[in-house]
Design a protein that fits this description.
6-stranded mixed beta sheet; 5-stranded mixed beta sheet; alpha/beta; Aminopeptidase; single chain; 2 domains; Glucose Oxidase, domain 1; 493 residues
């Protein structure tokens, strides 16, 4: 009899505890969802970054002004310790004026952009371009006397990228993760360096090359290097036209003028950090980190790479603060700079706060990092970095979102992804993750291009991104389950 009574009591008590926990979870999700949909500031944040500050190349005044504005908004949201955190970068670069046009055999304005950190030309250059495609360093050295002050075209005719990366949430089989391979196979790196050195020592006036973008899309990067030649990336169709005309003997003249300056008064760049403090006496010193990078390239306005990500994590933090219920663990937001130059801002944060024996306690207390960067559109799920236990946990967290018909989540995948800031954390043994988003047009049209502009991102997607990021941060900040930690790189211990 006593056994029967005991079993009845257990049957009555256990479901009640489970039901109360489920109700509490459902209530938090309902509040996050309602706040994110009905009172969102994500579109306002996004538009300000895009339109007020424009391109945000690392090391430039535009980036620093955007970072200061970001810090002030996080402080306005009621977060604690909102601050700029400097790290040494080097000199910035600003484009002051660019002219690139064909003036013979007819006039045509050309779609082209100076590469980042390109020096200025020596005033205006008007000349017939000299074709160097297919030539070796020795061939170019033999032409040295013709190249001083000249306009040179250094690449073969453009070939175009016409396929985006596969969408992993729509395939039951594994798919290739990350951006597509280059359309044209890369040449020998040593030969390329020798050719570049020869062009530089020849005193070329300006070097013109092209990219894999089609329909006027131009992929433009750049880096700071000593004794560089002024360099322009030209739209592929126009590059090919000029090259065909020159090869056919049609007289062609271009007018080119690049004027730029370097920003050397402040060698630092800046991350932005702010906290929503945890309330648990045991777990409050642990940290769940959300992040995105604010820096961009200089030709578009960095809409999908990565103003939308910044707007999403800022809005996620605002939503979490609005709940009025502190999380158990501290939730921190980090807005990085220097991502486009090689994850430099997040690496600097890791070096200062997490790497090495002196930072072991802080490293152990960083529970997880959730980054948002590649692609745009809705968050469909998460890359689980080849960890089955992580996928099982993330599947639990994603399940309630699937019940929200307006969110459009799909599933998590076991694969990992590279080339973004979560890698800085995984290198020192901290779990780091990035969501899966929509890749249509991202690789062929948006990523690092002149058309990565406001129109690439939808307000509804910004709202969805913020809700999903807030929900995963809340779950991580309150869970009793551990997220498996990756094996750190040897240098990251």
């Amino acid at each position: 009899m006593r056994t029967a009574v005991f079993l009845i009591l257990c049957a009555l008590i256990a479901p009640r505890s489970t039901t109360e926990g489920t109700r509490a979870t459902d209530d938090v999700l309902h509040r996050i969802h309602a706040e994110g949909m009905q009172h969102s500031r994500a579109a306002e944040i996004y538009a300000t970054i895009i339109d007020q500050f424009g391109p945000r190349l690392t090391g430039t005044p535009a980036h620093k002004h955007a970072a200061e504005w970001t810090r002030d908004r996080l402080n306005e949201f009621g977060l604690k310790n909102a601050a700029l955190e400097p790290w040494q970068f080097g000199r910035g670069w600003v484009l002051d004026r660019l002219v690139v046009e064909m003036i013979e055999p007819r006039y045509a304005p050309l779609i082209g952009y100076a590469d980042a950190w390109s020096p200025s030309t020596n005033g205006e250059i008007v000349a017939t371009p000299i074709l160097l495609d297919g030539k070796s360093a020795a061939d170019v050295a033999a032409m040295k006397e013709k190249l001083s002050g000249a306009i040179v075209m250094t690449q073969p005719e453009a070939q175009f990228i016409r396929e985006d990366r596969p969408q992993p949430t729509l395939s039951d089989a594994p798919v290739r993760i990350g951006q597509p391979p280059p359309v044209r196979a890369r040449g020998n790196a040593a030969d390329a360096r020798a050719l570049a050195d020869t062009i530089r020592t020849a005193g070329v006036g300006v070097s013109v090359h092209t990219s894999e973008g089609e329909h006027g899309t131009v992929f433009v990067l750049g880096r700071d290097q000593p004794d560089a030649v002024p360099t322009i990336t030209l739209a592929g169709e126009q590059y090919n036209m000029i090259m065909r005309m020159v090869k056919r003997g049609i007289p062609v003249k271009l007018r080119v003028n690049v004027q730029s300056h370097y920003v050397a008064d402040d060698p630092n760049s800046y991350n932005v950090i702010a906290d929503l403090p945890g309330s648990d006496s045991r777990l409050g010193s642990e940290v769940v980190l959300l992040g995105a990078h604010l820096d961009s390239w200089h030709t578009g306005t960095g809409a999908s790479d990565n103003a939308d990500g910044v707007a999403a994590v800022m809005e996620a933090m605002r939503i979490l603060k609005s709940l009025g219920t502190p999380p158990k663990r501290t939730i921190r937001v980090a807005i990085w700079s220097g991502e486009e130059q090689g994850l430099l801002g997040s690496k600097a944060y890791v070096t200062q706060h997490l790497a090495g024996d002196a930072n072991k306690d802080a490293r152990d207390k960083l529970f997880a990092y959730f980054n948002i960067d590649p692609a745009t559109g809705p968050i469909y799920g998460w890359y689980c970095e080849t960890s089955e236990p992580t996928k099982a946990l993330f599947d639990e967290w994603l399940a309630p979102l699937k019940a929200e018909s307006d969110l459009g989540v799909r599933r998590n995948v076991i694969a990992g992804i590279g080339n973004t800031d979560h890698l800085s954390f995984r290198a020192v043994g901290v779990p780091g993750f990035n969501p899966i988003q929509e890749y249509k047009d991202y690789d062929v049209r948006m990523h690092h291009t002149n058309v990565d502009m406001y129109e690439r991102v939808r307000e509804q997607d910004l709202k969805q991104n913020a809700i999903v990021m807030a929900w995963f941060a809340w779950q991580a900040a309150n869970t009793d389950q551990a997220i498996p930690r990756p094996q750190p790189a040897a240098s990251g211990r």
